[in-house]
Amino acid sequence: MTDIWTPAKIGVTDISNRLAMAPMTRSRAQADGTPGALAALYYEQRAGMGLIVTEGTQPSEDGQGYLATPGIYNDAHKKGWQKITSAVHAKGSRIFLQLMHVGRTSHPDNTTHHRQPVAPSAIKPGNQIFTVKGMQPIPEPRSLTIEEIAQTVNDFRTAARCAIDAGADGVEIHGANGYLIQQFFAPNANLREDVYGGGIENRTRLAIEVAQAVADEIGAKRTGIRLSPGATLGGLQEGVEGPNLYRYLVSELNKLELAYVHIMHLGNDALLADIRASWDQALILNRPGRALEDVGSDIRTGLADVESYGQFVLSTPDFVERLKSGAQMNEPDRASYYGGGAEGYVDYPTQSEAVVA
């Protein structure tokens, strides 16, 4: 029977077990978007996971939304990520960079160019964001032109090439969590009347174009995509058509033969079953709040090929070893999730270190 310890192939990438580190923003990059000095150690510590999916990494200046998030669109970024990919590979794991364009979930104070955020339509999300001046309301974004959408697609393509040049095994397109690609899905964020707005086929067009462009550039078998059906982050409401939008989208993406789809599952079991049935490649499943005793259950039933975990891995660098031995995991420190230095980042003890202490 297949379990979490059975090796697997994700596209063309062999992984030693079926556990993935989920992407988690840590906000510790340098001001220019180059990964911070401790980033290589942070990922190396967690390289017991079969696959690491990195924190969201902006493919352009417009793609940044939060303070101190990394980029992957210039030579300095590539050199910074090269240290990380080399460290992870030396430990026997594999690493995909997540390409994250936040769209309207941004603030001029947080970006290098200090420009107005961009989005499908000029609609505020109605929430706040942390900036150097503290919490501020997210301003009204500017609606992307058709030409700018084409440039955005090309930005993803270029960033994917930069990621491979930096030694990544592949990239994951962030189509979830209320960011740009999902903003196009949601009728309350996308009021466009052109080919990117209106019906399901139009609202999924950007996601498919980005996936096609990235696959053309680096190979479909090195390209994954993350989706979060029904997520309301960033003020999004996908409406009654939401489930059918994802059924259509996944069936279209399946034709591209991507390496994987990474689903953040929020409870619609019928939709998840339909996605599983219509997807012929690897499916990575993330269940927020999954109990430790349930680790591996979706692998055993065949619902997923890989399970991804976030907070467990953030706080417990030797998550895999402790899972095997049944040892207790570290408690995460929420106060140090974002920003700062080593504390709450690379100083969580392994089991052996905790025993010595």
From TrEMBL:
Pfam families: Oxidored_FMN. Residues 4-328 form the NADH:flavin oxidoreductase/NADH oxidase N-terminal domain. This is Alkene reductase. The lineage of its organism: Bacteria, Pseudomonadati, Pseudomonadota, Alphaproteobacteria, Hyphomicrobiales.
